[in-house]
Write a structure and sequence with these properties.
The complex is a heterodimer of chains A (283) and B (293). Chain A is flat, with a radius of gyration of 24 Å. Chain A contains 15 helices and no strands. Chain A is 75% helix and 0% strand. Chain B has one domain: MetI-like (MetI-like fold). A two-stranded antiparallel ribbon of chain B has the order 1-2. Helices cover 75% and strands 1% of the residues of chain B. The chains are: A mainly alpha (283), B mainly alpha (293). The interface between A and B is large, with 104 and 108 residues. Chain B: One of its GO terms (cellular component) is plasma membrane. Chain B: Belongs to the binding-protein-dependent transport system permease family. Chain B: It is found in: Cell membrane.
Chain lengths: 283, 293
């Protein structure tokens, strides 16, 4: 282990070290903490610059109610769910299939296809903005949920393929040899051998892809216009324009946007970390 | 039919399984990226007829002062973003101890990574606000007046990049923590026996084992820097007076607000060329690792 572990028999140093880390952490999360606190405050406090003192009046309920009732954040929130959940499921299905083929059926050109998936995923997304927007306008999908779903599924399939290919490639090859010896078809192999074994990978991938799509802002502003389809990230940006210096309301809305990914992260933390590192480090 | 299927299923099934994902990715992502080059040779308002103008968009770009502002800002993004891997490594070292409560603290360190870039942008806009912001408050505590970072054309890009660094450092930390978990204990033990400590240990024993992780952290950081858009859009919209644009943002603005899609495509092409160098470098490393394995 590096750095050298602080020995168990020095409880005082261990405690002091823990305190030091907690201090750094407090500084690290200071901006976030301030926003959470502000979402509890009244506008008078915000105007008076009372950020750290005790709120003159705690109005958690009022602030969040204002976000729900006086803005369209709730609609945007539902839009985000409508876009994110089906996209995530589609990515999982598609990438299990592509990952399975690319890891278990070597054929000439497989490496090129794999490199395309990975390389395409590394492109700055702005490069493809103009043709994709044009494609969505031409097909009548522009400013519908489908535009965002279609794009996200296509784009995330690149990363997800890398991820699933690496995971399936690491499964013991004896399993696949045995299946072949038994005369199992590729489809049977996929359903009976691969599908049950990739569940942990799928859990990790699901959280990552969900977070990526939920947090997307660029495509939300490029491919949607109307409030009926706008996801919550673009909605937050609008709301900030409307509620200019009412930071207590803006803060409440900001927290609302952050809740689903943060919740996912804490509920399935192990999967999240292993996902990020598996996807990246093994690649 | 069934006999025919049985005979060919061993290659047909894989082909059919690969097809939907590959088709979607090729058509939407790869094809669109290539089409951008083509569009860059036209004058186009995004709806009407495209008029062929050859290299005119590129010639105009070379005379466009805004292009150089974007280029310079992209360079600032890139250089400042490269602080993320070492900073992430430092935090990873800091939290790599098995002490009560450390696990919770580790995950709290990851938090900025899960937040949307828009969320981060809003948080930092507020943080930087010269009258109400936290930074102004800190300055006042020391009796100084806070600079209005986001409306100062010389400081604005630095302020925006600093906000985007926050999640990026968290990302690098996650990667390095995984790397630290996979360190070869025997090598470290041997190093300790040989009397390597502190920096010497870090330099000769630990860092060489982290090169692959570091490679990925740097690659992801570079892509992140070149992709920079969200933070700029949320915090400054390219301002004040276009002083905080990057290539990605300028392209967006030229296309969607000025309806100059051909010109926007030319900017995107330049961005691609810069990026292509890094993608080639990354893929080379990836394929080399693949062959070595």
């Amino acid at each position: 282990m590096y750095p050298r572990a602080i020995p168990e028999n020095r409880p005082l140093s261990r405690f002091a070290y823990g305190l030091l880390v907690a201090l750094v952490l407090a500084l690290w999360l200071l901006p976030l903490f301030a926003v959470i606190m502000t979402s509890f405050r009244s506008f008078d406090d915000v105007m008076a610059g009372n950020y750290w003192g005790w709120p003159s009046k705690i109005q958690v309920f009022e602030n969040y109610a204002a976000v729900f009732q006086q803005s369209k954040m709730l609609d945007y929130f539902l839009n985000s769910l409508i876009i994110t959940i089906p996209s995530t499921i589609a990515v999982l299905v598609l990438s299990t299939m592509t990952g399975f083929v690319l890891s278990r059926y070597p054929f000439p050109g497989a490496m090129v296809i794999f490199a395309l998936f990975v390389g395409g995923n590394f492109l700055p997304q702005q490069i493809m903005m103009i043709p994709i927007r044009d494609l969505m306008v031409a097909t009548g999908l522009y400013d519908t949920f489908w535009a965002l779903i279609l794009f996200h599924v296509a784009f995330q399939t690149g990363f997800a393929t890398l991820f699933m290919r690496n995971f399936i490639a690491a499964l013991p090859s004896e399993l696949f040899q045995a299946a072949r010896a038994e005369g199992a078809s590729p489809w049977q192999t996929l359903i009976h051998i691969v599908a049950p074994l990739v569940r942990p990978a799928l859990a990790a991938l699901a959280i990552l892809v969900f977070t990526f799509i939920w947090n997307d802002y660029f495509w939300a502003v490029v491919l949607t216009q109307s409030d009926a389809v706008k996801p919550v990230t673009a909605g937050l940006s609008n709301l900030r324009g409307e509620w200019v210096s009412q930071w207590n309301i803006v803060s409440a809305a900001t927290i609302l946007v952050a809740v689903p990914p943060v919740l996912m992260f804490f509920l399935m933390q192990k999967h999240f970390i292993s996902g990020l590192t598996m996807g990246a480090v093994k690649g | 039919m069934t006999i025919w299927w049985r005979r060919h299923r061993n290659w047909l099934t894989p082909a059919l399984l690969l097809a939907p994902g590959l088709f979607l990715f090729l058509v939407v992502i790869i094809w669109s990226s290539l089409e951008t080059f083509w569009i860059s040779f036209f004058d186009w308002d995004g709806m009407g007829v495209k008029t062929w103008v050859g290299l005119a968009n590129y010639r105009e770009l070379l005379d466009d002062p805004q292009f150089y502002v974007s280029l310079k800002n992209n360079l600032i993004w890139l250089l400042m973003f490269l602080l993320a891997p070492p900073a992430g490594l430092a935090i990873a070292f800091l939290v790599n101890q098995k002490i009560a409560g450390m696990r919770v603290m580790k995950s709290l360190f990851f938090m900025p990574l899960v937040l949307a870039t828009v969320t981060v942008g809003v948080i930092f806009t507020w943080f930087y606000d010269p009258t109400f912001g936290l930074l102004a408050l800190l300055f006042r505590a020391f009796g100084a007046e806070a600079p209005a970072l986001l409306s100062n054309e010389h400081l604005v890009t630095f302020a925006v990049v600093a906000s985007a660094l926050w999640p990026q450092i968290a990302f690098c930390m996650v990667l390095f923590l995984a790397g630290l978990n996979n360190l070869d204990e025997e090598l470290i033990g041997a190093g300790r026996v040989d009397g390597a400590r502190g920096l010497a240990m870090l330099w000769h024993v630990v860092l060489p084992q982290l090169t692959q992780v570091a490679f990925i952290a740097v690659a992801i950081t570079i892509v992140g820097a070149l992709r920079s858009f969200d933070a700029i859009s949320v915090m400054t919209a390219g301002g004040p007076f276009g002083s905080s644009t990057t290539l990605a943002y300028q392209m967006y603005e030229q296309s969607l607000f000025s309806y100059r899609f051909g010109y926007g495509a030319a900017i995107a092409t330049i961005l691609f060329l810069i990026m292509a160098v890094f993608i080639a470098w990354y893929l080379r490393g990836l394929i080399r690792a693949e062959k070595g394995a």
